[in-house]
Amino acid sequence: xxxxxxxxxxxxxxxxxxxxxxxxxxxxxxxxxxxxxxxxxxxxxxxxxxxxxxxxxxxxxxxxxxxxxxxxxxxxxxxxxxxxxxxxxxxxxxxxxxxxxxxxxxxxxxxxxxxxxxxxxxxxxxxxxxxxxxxxxxxxxxxxxxxxxxxxxxxxxxxxxxxxxxxxxxxxxxxxxxxxxxxxxxxxxxxxxxxxxxxxxxxxxxxxxxxxxxxxxxxxxxxxxxxxxxxxxxxxxxxxxxxxxx
Length: 246
Fold this sequence. Notes:
By secondary structure, this protein is an all-alpha fold. Helices cover 72% and strands 0% of the residues. The protein starts with 8 loop residues before the first helix and ends in an 11-residue tail after the last helix. InterPro entries: DUF6062. Pfam families: DUF6062.
């Protein structure tokens, strides 16, 4: 089903020009940095933001980034009220553990407590903000591919996307395209992925050969970081882990 979303033309065009293995990874790194910065800013003093943070919180990965974000006062304020919210949920469950009458009931009560603790980690505000941007970026890529011949050529001449973001592009494509255009776009990005996976593997293979004594003086041919590119070409970077389910 086609939707009308705001196009992110400038960042997507800038991305396709940068020549990286996956410019969606680059854009999502920026989206992640922006989101972490937002939740460490004066926004935490806004009642509606604090209510959101207390109710939903963040996944472990993004809590770690917040903890290392260099804004102790903002994070301390956020965590204080988040702990209050936790206490309202956890205290009755902890009481059930304390008041249980035998080992079986104690373990069952403890399991209920930890289930509630795990539930508090589900649904991340930063992941949700990142996902909103990712959908718009993917929508823009598909739309420009179909409507702008210059972008189409630039994209098809690029290094494509990581496997992870190729899947995200395909998921979003039917919100922007339909019929033959949709089929053509999906075939294009999958073909680009196959070609560029082979290229990255070849670079990775050449790195293995460079460590042989007979190849020591031969050129690297751009394979100096091939092992890292081989990893990230598959899994991507700055992934959306656990967004809130709308």
